[in-house]
Amino acid sequence: MATSPKSPFSNLPAAPTAPKKPVSDTYHGITRTDDYAWLRADNWQAMFKDPSLLDPEIRKHLEAENDYMEAALGDTAALQKTLFAEMRGRIKEDDSSVPMKDGPFAYGSLFVTGGEQPHYFRTPRDGGEKQTLLNGDKEAEGKDYFRLAGIDHTIDHSHGIWGYDDKGSEYFTLRVRDLTTGEDLDDILENTAGGGVWAPDGRSFFYTLQDENHRPSKVFHHILGQKQSEDRLVFEEKDPGFFMGVGGSLLDDFIYIDIHDHETSEYRLIPTSDLVAEPKLVAEREEGIEYSMTEGGDVFYILTNDGDAKDFKIVEAPASAPGKENWKEVVPHVPGRLIISHMAYARHLIWLQRKDGLPQIVIRDRTSGEEHAIAFDEEAYSLGLSGAAEYETNTIRFSYSSMTTPTQLFDYDMVTRERTLLKTQEVPSGHNPDDYVTRRVMAPAHDGELVPVSLLYRKDTPLDGSSPCLLYGYGAYGMTIPASFSTNALSLADRGIVYAIAHIRGGKDKGFAWYENGKMEFKQNTFKDFIAAADHLVATGFTAYDRIIAEGGSAGGMLMGAIANMAPEKFAGIIAAVPFVDVLTTMLDDTLPLTPPEWPEWGNPIESEEEYRWIAAYSPYDNVTGRAYPPILAISGLTDPRVTYWEPTKWVAKLREHTAGAAPILLKTNMAAGHGGKSGRFQRLEEIAFEYAFAIKVAGKM
């Protein structure tokens, strides 16, 4: 019988106590009182752009929380350094992508030894000297935070648009670079969503602007040399519940305006032969109907769930008349086969699908209609489909990995079906796949569904209930967590910790119905599935309840908050990164960036009492009560526009007030970053090392 690990925390100073300043609201006759609402900065829009504007009282509290966190985890400093060194040692520092051919050049990116940021380059098409287009390390000099949005070149390869965010608030500045001289033009565009789409003439481009509530609501047309204030407004989306993006077709015949929330979409097209034309509506938005487009010469191929095609189908329509009345099915809907994305080239239509929980790439000859799928051998794996940058091609590119197999990059000839290995991910410090085991087990859920769980552990790990386990989950927006290779997870496996991913409802791991049954009124299935995964891992000897550390971020942080309330006794510790835990309050605040677009995911508690009650039943912040919570580590970013810093700050204050146990509740606020944490590749490793050090300490493996 395994003995329980002792509490690793002792002799901590007094934890910060946030003052109570009660604020009440009433909806549908239901009144709530929030003692910690004051932690939400009234000037949050301005503060995201200039963090120095943060209210001094709030700043003082966040800094006190950081000090307390340091006191609780200070003894992990050496472990963090060790973990960081291990993780860094598995990364090829001077790594380079395999350039992708586009016209007379091939474009790629690389990192230099010691560098934090990518460098973008090009070579002559068939190889030759690299020309650096953008040196991310140089651009980031002197900045606490810096994130590049990449660089997009004109058709004639003379200029490039590049963007950056230097605060973590996801307001991007766009610049235009002369790719011959390497000098930037005077054009500076502020508060964009990042990136733009060139017109074929190479003298103008389209971009989206973020409004004061951080929503990309307007598309503008910018002509080189003019001021941003002179840019022409092309289209404005008036509904705050919809996001908007702008893109281009591979043949450069159209500019796409993509308008969408989480379950409804609409496209408008601008022919590049007439850049001032009114954007043409393809198919009017219908609630619950999604579609996306790719050009195939004289036709569009459209991926859609229209007509009860829950797992999606592909239709085609004339490029001259792409309206819904002209849609003709070319790839039928097959229940249980979820089509994720599609691409079209001169002679082939390809799509990425998921069937039986595993991804597949399928290729169809556009003339003969003959189809084939690219075959793989492993039990569980991950695929990435990058396609090609040219329309006239028979060659596409994809990546493959599993939890034990490092990423491999292939070129694939769609005619001969020959795959060419271009690159295998190097692990400089060494990696022997035979030392590890990857498995997929099925955990019975409360209603009889089977929840897939992917596992990675060393072959010599005891499976008698004595091994710790880091159990990761997300479960929202239909996002699937792939069973891919992670050099970071090896640091856990090498310490005898089982690394597990619970593929819970709310994702599309088992098709679109898997997503539907983990959202809105069915959201609690997500939380119950995660607990069921923990139960199954205990029942089958992989771990024990007092050895499971749960981890999730963003919407997965909501999951962490929910399971902390529902089954705190089943977890030894919880890591909640940028956790969306104040769900009801956020969904009641329609001024926040993501609130209106997210009502189809969670419900609209302003308009509907029923939906208010759904959310109120699980919202982690609203369901904190007196119970013995395990050690909890919450992590946030001050300028995060997605999950605002005050959500985890309020949650920690309330948890600490109500916990009936002695376990510490910790908060780390990154005062110079947003939703994704620090921006540099090694800075990010420092954050992962910090999270893993908490898990290892809680697991008693220090």
Properties at a glance:
702 residues; alpha+beta; Rossmann fold; eight-stranded mixed sheet; four-stranded antiparallel sheet; 38 strands; 19% helix; globular
Describe the model.
- The chain has a domain at 23-88 and 430-698: Alpha/Beta hydrolase fold, catalytic domain (Rossmann fold).
- It is built from 13 helices and 38 strands.
- The longest helix has 18 residues, at 56-73.
- Helix 3 packs across helix 13 (681-698).
- The strands form nine sheets. The protein has an eight-stranded mixed β-sheet with strand order 31-32-34-33-35-36-37-38, with helices on both faces.
- Helix content is 19%, strand content 32%.
- It is α+β, with helices and mostly antiparallel strands and 702 residues long.
For the report, how would you describe the main beta sheet? 8 strands, mixed
Under the CATH scheme, the architecture of the domain at 23-88 and 430-698 is: 3-Layer(aba) Sandwich
**What is the CATH topology classification name of the domain at 23-88 and 430-698?**
Rossmann fold
Oligomer: single chain
Structural class: alpha+beta
CATH superfamily of the domain at 23-88 and 430-698: Alpha/Beta hydrolase fold, catalytic domain
Low-confidence stretches: none
Short structural description:
By secondary structure, this protein is α+β, with helices and mostly antiparallel strands. It is built from 13 helices and 38 strands.
What is the fold's blueprint, element by element?
Layout: E1 23-27, E2 30-34, H1 44-49, H2 56-73, H3 77-89, E3 100-102, E4 105-110, E5 119-124, E6 131-135, H4 136-139, E7 147-153, E8 159-165, E9 172-178, E10 184-192, E11 197-198, E12 204-210, E13 216-223, E14 232-236, E15 243-248, E16 254-260, E17 265-271, E18 280-281, E19 291-295, E20 299-304, E21 313-318, E22 328-331, E23 337-344, E24 348-355, E25 358-365, E26 371-373, E27 382-387, E28 395-401, E29 408-413, E30 419-424, E31 436-444, E32 450-458, E33 469-473, H5 490-493, E34 498-502, H6 512-516, H7 524-539, E35 548-553, H8 555-566, E36 573-577, H9 583-587, H10 595-602, H11 609-618, E37 632-637, H12 646-658, E38 665-670, H13 681-698
Parallel strand pairs: 33-34, 33-35, 35-36, 36-37, 37-38
Antiparallel strand pairs: 1-2, 3-4, 4-5, 5-6, 7-8, 8-9, 9-10, 11-12, 12-13, 13-14, 15-16, 16-17, 17-18, 19-20, 20-21, 21-22, 23-24, 24-25, 25-26, 27-28, 28-29, 29-30, 31-32, 32-34
Helix pairs in contact: 3-13, 7-8
